[in-house]
Amino acid sequence: MTIRRVVFNQKGGVGKSTIAVNLAAVAAKRGRRVLLIDLDPQGNASHYLQGEDAAAGPTVADLFQQMLNISLFAKEPQDFVRDTRIEGLSLLASHPELSELMVKLEARYKMFKLKEALDALDGRFDEIWIDTPPALNFYTRSALIAADRCLIPFDCDAFSRHALYNLKTSADEIRADHNPALYIEGIVVNQFQPRASLPARMVEELKSEGLPVLASPLSASVKIRESHEAACPMVYFDPRHKLSREFEALYQELAGN
Ligand SMILES: Nc1ncnc2c1ncn2[C@@H]1O[C@H](COP(=O)(O)OP(=O)(O)OP(=O)(O)O)[C@@H](O)[C@H]1O
Ligand SMILES: [Mg+2]
Predict the structure, then answer these.
(1) Whose CA is nearest to atom 14 of ligand 1?
(2) Which of 48, 57, 205, 213 is least crowded, fewest Cβ atoms below 10 Å from its Cβ?
(3) What are the backbone angles phi and psi of residue 104, rounded to the nearest 5°?
(4) What is the position in ligand 1's atom list of the atom closest to the CA of 133?
(5) pTM score, whole prediction
(6) Which ligand lies nearest to the CA atom of residue 242 in the structure?
(7) From CA 224, how far away is CA 48, in angstroms rounded?
(8) For position 197, what pLDDT does the model report?
C-alpha cells in the first residue's frame, strides 16, 4: 500500500518544501518508488527538484483543470506525472495557475478529487509526499483529505507555537468530518539550535503538553540555500553534511513508525 504524507503548516517559511523534497529524496535513495506532489502555486518544491525545467511539461494544475471539465477523453493522473533527475523520484509539479483555479474548484466542490486521483495511482508508488501552501485553503484541505499522515514542521518560533494548536484543530476537524485515516505523524523541529535555551525549552514544553514532537530535529545550515540554488536536494547535494544525515535520521524515525 502507498503511504501518503502531507507536509503542512499554515505558517510560511517553516521548511515545508525543504522537508518534503529532502525526505522524498531520501526515500528514493533507499529504493522506494516516490511521488512528490507540489500543491503550492509558489512552486518552490518543483523548482527545488527541477530548477528552470519545472515550468515545462504537465503540472498538477492541468490535472485539476481536467477535474473541472467533463470529458470522455480524460487523461489518467499518471499522465501528469514526470520523472526527475533522481532515480525513483517522480513529480507532479506546481503551476502558478493553481491560484486562479482554486476559486473554481472550490465553487464546484472538488475537494475530494485529489483523493480520487491518488486512489487511481495506488500501487504505482510506495510513498507519496504532498507539499502544501502556507494557508488552510482548498489545496491544503484536499491534501489532508487525501493523505493518511501529516507532518508538521515547526521553526521554534513563539508565533508558530501558537499556530500549532490551530493546526491540530484543523487536522482533527478533517479527520472527524472527512478522513478517519488521517493522523498527525509528528512535529518536525526545524532550524533547531541546541545551544540556545529558548528553542530547547519550547520543544520540551510542546512535549509535556502531549504534542507528538519527533525525536530527530533538523539543524540550521546555510548549505540548504546552496542546495536550493543548485536545484538539488541537500541529501544528494552534500550527503555527508550534518543536515543531510539529520534528514536520513528523520526518515528512519518515520519509517520505523
Ligand atoms: N534547516 C534549515 N536551515 C537553514 N535554512 C533553512 C532550513 N530549512 C529551511 N530553510 C530556509 O528557510 C526558507 C523557507 O524554507 P521552505 O521554503 O522550505 O519553507 P516553507 O514552509 O515551504 O515556506 P512557504 O510557506 O513559503 O511554502 C528557505 O529559504 C529555506 O532555504
Ligand atoms: Mg513551501
Answers:
(1) 13
(2) 205
(3) -65, -45
(4) 27
(5) 0.97
(6) 1
(7) 11
(8) 87
23 lines ligand 1 (CB under 6 A): no
User: What mean pLDDT is predicted for residues 58-67?
Assistant: 96
Give the residue carrying C-alpha cell 477523453. Answer: 73
pLDDT at 72: 67
Kindly report the three-state secondary structure assignment for every residue of the chain.
CCEEEEECCCCCCCCHHHHHHHHHHHHHHCCCCEEEEECCCCCHHHHHHHHHHHHCCCCHHHHHHHHHCCCCCCCCHHHHCEECCCCCEEEECCCCCHHHHHHHHHHCCCCCHHHHHHHHHECCECEEEEECCCCCCHHHHHHHHHCCEEEEEECCCHHHHHHHHHHHHHHHHHHHHCCCCCEEEEEEECCECCCCHHHHHHHHHHHHCCCCECCCCCECCCHHHHHHHCCCCHHHHCCCCHHHHHHHHHHHHHHCC
pLDDT > 80? residue 257? no
- Determine the Cα–Cα distance for residues 208 and 199; give it in Å rounded to an integer: 14
- The reply to whether ligand 1 has any atom less than 6 angstroms from the CB of 38 is no
Burial label, 27 (beta-carbon count in 10 A; 0-12, 13-18, 19+)? buried
Cβ of 35 less than 6 Å from ligand 1 = no
Ligand 1 mean position, distance from CA 13 (Å) = 5
pLDDT digits (tens, 9 = 90+) for 71-85: 767 899 999 999 999
CB atoms under 10 Å from CB of 159, counted, come to 8
pLDDT confidence of residue 163: 85
Mean pLDDT of 23-52: 98
